[in-house]
Each structure stands twice: as structure tokens, then as C-alpha cells.
Amino acid sequence: MSADIHKQAFVTEAGELLEELEQSLMELENTPDDSDLVAKVFRAMHTIKGSGSMFGFDNLAAFVHGIETAYDLVREGKLAVTQEMIENSLKSCDVIKEMVADETIDSSGGVAAALKNFFAALQGGGASAAKPAEKARERKSSLTTFRVQFKPHEDIFTRGVNVQLLLNEIAELGECKVIAHPENVPYLDELESEKCYVNWDIILTTDKGENAIRDVFIFVEDDCDITITPVAFYDGESADDHERIGEILVEKGDISRIELEAILSEKKRLGEILVEKGAVAPSAIDAALEEQKHIREIKAKKSEAEGMTSIRVQSDKLDFLVDLVGELVTVQARLSQTAARKNEPELLKIAEDVERLVWDLRDNTMSIRMLPIGSTFSKFNRLVRDLSHTLGKKIDLVTEGAETELDKTVIEKLNDPLVHLIRNSIDHGLEMPEERKSAGKKETGTITLSARHSGDSVLIQITDDGRGIDPEKVRRKAIEKGLIAETVELTAKEACELILAPGFSTAEAVSNISGRGVGMDVVKRNIEALKGTLDITSEKGKGTVISLKLPLTLAIIDGLLIKVSDQFFIIPLAVVEECIELTPKDIANSHGRSIIQVRGDIVPYIKLRELFGIRSEVPEIQQIVVTEIDGRRVGFVTDSVIGDHQTVIKSLGKIFKEVHGVSGASILGDGSVALIIDAVKIYHGIE
Amino acid sequence: MGKIILSVDDSASIRQMVKFTLTKEGYEVIEASDGVDALAKITGKKVDMVVTDLNMPNMDGITLIKELRKQAAYKFIPIIMLTTESQDSKKLEGKAAGATGWIVKPFKPEQLLGVVKKVLG
């Protein structure tokens, strides 16, 4: 347990501190005016208290508090060191020693209580009582739209504050729109790049209450002006209707009512007039309009949710739709490219609009295909129940994150690997009830199946609290199977990797649950076919965690477009770490080996030109795309890196089944074809 | 690439806890036992964030924060101070020196992580 390590470290540290403390106290006895010594004593007490309370020595912390305060007063010159004080401090050291050795001892009686009273009395009875615990959090409130006006002071950056992070944090609280007001940004020659000139209006609909918003700004309260105003509630009745933009501006103090009414008498769209007249800045109007729109949307959504309807559509119709959107993305890329080449303003404008619409359409279509993974999870309850009967093991299956959404096709293909992994965990991982009992565990083993989003992928974990993977057992088996040499020693991590090697199976007897020839390597390959990764971590005696990382969708991925000679390739952006140059000097330095030094690390690389047999002149400076595969860094050498590319994946057809190193193709804006590089397969092939 | 966090505290057990908690989350941690040690250890190094105690021998946390803010490389990085109780005067002093935020001791690993994520992203 990690907490125990820390406790142990504290006990050792406290021992050292106490020795120092006693020494300092005895010196202080001779020179009571030495401020350095006083500071030393104070710091020692301070550390014992601070660290003590961190690691659960609450009684100790409570006891030391009084002494610390007394020495703080001495430090400030409000109290003089007396013989009695030193005497009692030394006695306190002994009490502290006991309390460190046994954290259950408290200071309610005996010597400790007397000492406590003595030090409390020194502070003139004014020992500040510990502050009352903070008020209990505001109860969960109902859905409310807040207007947050956030005006950072100009020097906020010099405090290491990242405004972007604050805005992101706010956005996590609920439905949120952010409008920036850049009116105060000065002209370039007057601009000081270290200052913050922008302020923001944030319109947020959340059910977490105002305190949650205040919490976000807790560190910057003094460095900015924040006004939080609830502007709409959604508790059934349409309470506060902020439909009129003029009202919003008046309420926020952007304009006075009289001014507004004077302008209103002229009949034009209010926003335009206000800006024309210079009464308010354009961004203030934008903010007000956003607010209006936001509230309307939330209301619409709310009423929609109440009367939620759905229709059933055949899934092949959806697949067809996704195909069409894929084609559309390709055509749109062509349009953008053509527009850029012709450089006609009118055409460019259309191209941009089409691009925006196509992206929205794409995201929307993809979201239709998303299904919660829960439907798959629920099937496993039965599996676990049956297995527990057959094997005589007691098992609890816990599922988390059943609502996590994944592409339908991914979910379908995930079923078999998951069945296999859960079987494995139950069969190899969990122990029999008696064995668990003697190991000091609960008789019932737990298997946790969890899913959650992490970035643009989904992380699925199968966790058991069983016996874990025994590196020694893995080693013996691997030697038996001829996978490793007899002299090889294995770390826990390497053992886990070996389990994933082809031809490995640790089950001592072939049971009818697992060990039927389908090894973990097959599972791993299945996951890799879904562009995912599989990882195992395990602690002997504690259990095993199997992590699957899967992309949200298979139809369109983010890729990095690169070029060798006149052939385009795409590397999935998910595996790309960075791009670096490969100069003739680098090649000379590596003496013919395909490796390069990247900031001190040695990274091997693969030349795509050689791999795909492209015959053409090699440019002087080549590029290396560094990827991370199975935790190792591998570079791919190419002529040039073009940039990121929304890759609509096209399968290559049966004829190309035997082609290795390429997992598909994509059509570029100009109609040419780019091959999608299967970095994982290439890497394993070379290895 | 893991972000680099400098942990400054004269208490070895707190340093250990900070390091343990942060390295588990993929951050890289440089440890220093006081302000002087901290400045020496990071000379010429890239540091993404600092977590410092206030009461330390040789050079205290407030002075360290001031020193760091004087250097261009550390002018805009988040600096979090560890305070005991809610000593408001110390907190204000720290903020005036340029601290980004604070954590009140005792704190739990999750609280530390929460604050690191909040200011470092």
C-alpha cells in the first residue's frame, strides 16, 4: 500500500527531526535570544505537524499545534523563551516520540494534556481554535443558466495563470458558450505581450450551482473581476425570460435604459443601431445574442427531452449514410483545394461554407452510429454466472461506464475479445475461495469491467483482484515453449508482454473455459485490427488489469499525410509523436545503422522508400515521423511531411489481402490515392 | 513527453508523497529541499510547474517564488504553494510574490492532482 510507504517515510523523518529538535532546544537553553535557533525549532515543529497530519497522525498534529504556535510567537518577538518552556518542549519531544510510534495515543490525559495546557496558556489563552470546517457545499441545485463576466487584471499572466485552462474547466460544468471581448486590445506598437487585454463573457447552463463556478476561479479571485448572475431557470415554469437583447444589455450595464430607449425609437435592428451609434462594442452585442440563443436552445432541448422520440432505422442504411459522408468529405477536400488554387474570393467563401457544413454533417452522422457499450456489458453477467458455477469460484462482476459510446462496428467486433479476456481473468486470475481466504482476501473475487472516454479514444479495462501474473511461472513456461533462452530473467512487465506472444498459454491443464488454443496473441491481433492497443499490468498476489484502447470510430480517422517521391502515405495520427529531420550528417553519425539520436534517446527508423521499393532520387534532407508502438519509439523516414488529413478509410479489396504494411487507402483532394500505413504491423514485421 | 514539476519541501516525507503521486500520473518530478537547492537544481532546465512549501531553511518559499518570477524561463509557469492552515497573511504574501495558487496542508494525493490538473492542464 502506498499510504504505508509514506507513513514509514514520515516515521523515519520524524525521528531525525526530533533528534535535531532536541539538539536545538538544548542550545537554545544557553542562548535564548538566538533567532536562528528559534526559527529552527519552529520549522521542526511545523514540519512534524504538517507532515504528520498528511499521513494520518492527527493526534500528533493536534498536540504539536500549540507548541508550534508558541514558537511562532517567539519568532515574532511577542514571547520570550523561558527555562520552563524549554523544559516542557523537551518533555514534548518524548510525547511526540510515543505518538509517532503509536498513532492511537492522544493528548487527552497525563503528561501530554498538561503540556498542551502549558503551551496554550503561553498564548494568553488565545490559542486560535481550529477554524470551523467549511460550510457544507450548497446542495445540488437545479438546472440554471449563469452569465459569468470574467475580467482578468492585466498582469494575470505573471502569476502563472492559464486563462485557457480556466475556460476549459468552466466548459466542463455544463453547456457553455464563451464570447471574448477584444475591444481593449491596443494597437500593435502599444501592445505589451505579457499583459492580458481581453475579457470574456461565459454563458453556462449547469446544475452544479454557483459555488462550482466560483471554485473554478478560486486561485484568481483577487486577480480579476468576476460577476456571476443567474439569468434563466428551467424548473418547469418559464421563470425568467431573457428574450430581449436590449434587456440583457441594460441589465449588464453595457448601456443605460434611457440611451437604449432613445435609440429604440428609430426603427432598425437594435443590434446594428447600437453598434452604428458606437453605444456598445460589437462583441457586447455578440455576447448578448449568444446568451439569447443559448437560453433558447437549452429550452428547446429541455422540451425535446421531455417528449423524446426515436425511430428505428436499419443499420445498413446507416452504413450507407456513413459511406456517402465519407465520399462527401473527399469531394469537399477537392473543392477546397481547387478553390485555393483558383484563388477566387467568391469560390473560396463557398468552399469554406461547404467545409464547415461537411464537418458538422460528418460529426453528426458518426454520432448516430454511436451506441452505448452497456448492451455488450450486460451479456457478460450471464457468462460470469455460468463460469462461477462450473469452476466453483465466487465472482462479483462490476461494470462501470456502461453509457460510454462507441461506434457500432467497433462494439460488434469487441464482443469476442472481451468474452475471451473475461474468461481468462476468471480462469487464470481469480483463485478458488479457500485459496483466497488463506491469502487474506474476501472469498468472493471481483471482476471490474469499465469503459470511459480518454481523448479521442475509449479505454476499456478488465480488472480482477486475483492472484496476478507470476513472472517466474511465465518464465518457466516460456522456456518450456522455447520462446526465451533459459538464462533470461523476466521483469513483471516483460512477463506480461510474453503472455501476448504467439504460442503462449499458461493454463496448466486445458480446461473447457480457456486454454482452447486461442491465445492472448489472437485477442491482441483482433484489437489491433480495430486500430486499438492492448496492455496488461499485473501485480503478483494483487490482481491483473487488462487495458484496451480503441478509437471512437473506424470510418474516418485523423492522419498525418506524408510523401515519398510522388507517392502519398498516411500514418494514423494516434501513433505519431513528433516529426524530425534526417540530415546526411545524422546518417553519417550512425555508421550505417538505421538509428538516430533524439534528445539523447536512440530511435530506430524504417525507410519507407526501401520498404515499398520506391525508386527515385533521395532528397538531401529527409523527414522522420517518430511514432510510439507498444511503448517503443520507431521512426518512419519519408521525403516530406505535408500535414494532418481527415482520412476517410477505404478498404483495399481482396486482391491486396496479402499486402503487408498497408491497412487501407484514402482519396486525397486532388483525386490521388494515399496508402494508410499499418505502423504496428510494419514494426512487428521488421522486429 | 511528461511535464516536469519541481517539488520543493524540507520534509522528505511530503516530497516523497508528492513525487509518488505525480510520477504515477506521468509527470516528471525534480525534488529540492529548500529554495537555494531548488534554484541550483533547475538552472538551465525546463520546468513546467513548481510546488513549493513556504517554511524552509536557507531560502523560504516566498523568496523562491520571487526569484523564479525574475527569471524569464519561469515567469509564466504555474507555481503552487503549500500552506498549513489557511494562513491568510501567508497566502496573500505568496500571491503578491507571484504564486498561482495554494494547497492547504494536510492534503490528499487527489487534491494535489486536482490542483496540478487545474493549473497545468
UniProtKB/TrEMBL annotation, chain A:
<dbReference type="Pfam" id="PF01627">
    <property type="entry name" value="Hpt"/>
</dbReference>
<keyword id="KW-0902">Two-component regulatory system</keyword>
<dbReference type="Pfam" id="PF02518">
    <property type="entry name" value="HATPase_c"/>
</dbReference>
<feature type="domain" description="HPt">
    <location>
        <begin position="1"/>
        <end position="103"/>
    </location>
</feature>
<keyword id="KW-0418">Kinase</keyword>
<dbReference type="InterPro" id="IPR036641">
    <property type="entry name" value="HPT_dom_sf"/>
</dbReference>
<keyword id="KW-0145">Chemotaxis</keyword>
<dbReference type="InterPro" id="IPR037257">
    <property type="entry name" value="T2SS_E_N_sf"/>
</dbReference>
<dbReference type="InterPro" id="IPR003594">
    <property type="entry name" value="HATPase_dom"/>
</dbReference>
<keyword id="KW-0808">Transferase</keyword>
<dbReference type="GO" id="GO:0005737">
    <property type="term" value="C:cytoplasm"/>
</dbReference>
<feature type="domain" description="CheW-like">
    <location>
        <begin position="556"/>
        <end position="687"/>
    </location>
</feature>
<dbReference type="InterPro" id="IPR002545">
    <property type="entry name" value="CheW-lke_dom"/>
</dbReference>
<dbReference type="GO" id="GO:0006935">
    <property type="term" value="P:chemotaxis"/>
</dbReference>
<dbReference type="InterPro" id="IPR037006">
    <property type="entry name" value="CheA-like_homodim_sf"/>
</dbReference>
<protein>
    <recommendedName>
        <fullName>Chemotaxis protein CheA</fullName>
        <ecNumber>2.7.13.3</ecNumber>
    </recommendedName>
</protein>
<dbReference type="InterPro" id="IPR005467">
    <property type="entry name" value="His_kinase_dom"/>
</dbReference>
<dbReference type="InterPro" id="IPR004358">
    <property type="entry name" value="Sig_transdc_His_kin-like_C"/>
</dbReference>
<dbReference type="InterPro" id="IPR036061">
    <property type="entry name" value="CheW-like_dom_sf"/>
</dbReference>
<keyword id="KW-0547">Nucleotide-binding</keyword>
<dbReference type="Pfam" id="PF02895">
    <property type="entry name" value="H-kinase_dim"/>
</dbReference>
<dbReference type="InterPro" id="IPR036890">
    <property type="entry name" value="HATPase_C_sf"/>
</dbReference>
From TrEMBL, chain B:
<dbReference type="InterPro" id="IPR001789">
    <property type="entry name" value="Sig_transdc_resp-reg_receiver"/>
</dbReference>
<protein>
    <submittedName>
        <fullName>Response regulator</fullName>
    </submittedName>
</protein>
<feature type="modified residue" description="4-aspartylphosphate">
    <location>
        <position position="53"/>
    </location>
</feature>
<dbReference type="InterPro" id="IPR011006">
    <property type="entry name" value="CheY-like_superfamily"/>
</dbReference>
<keyword id="KW-0238">DNA-binding</keyword>
<keyword id="KW-0804">Transcription</keyword>
<dbReference type="InterPro" id="IPR050595">
    <property type="entry name" value="Bact_response_regulator"/>
</dbReference>
<dbReference type="GO" id="GO:0003677">
    <property type="term" value="F:DNA binding"/>
</dbReference>
<keyword id="KW-0805">Transcription regulation</keyword>
<dbReference type="Pfam" id="PF00072">
    <property type="entry name" value="Response_reg"/>
</dbReference>
<dbReference type="GO" id="GO:0000160">
    <property type="term" value="P:phosphorelay signal transduction system"/>
</dbReference>
<feature type="domain" description="Response regulatory">
    <location>
        <begin position="4"/>
        <end position="120"/>
    </location>
</feature>
<keyword id="KW-0902">Two-component regulatory system</keyword>
<keyword id="KW-0597">Phosphoprotein</keyword>
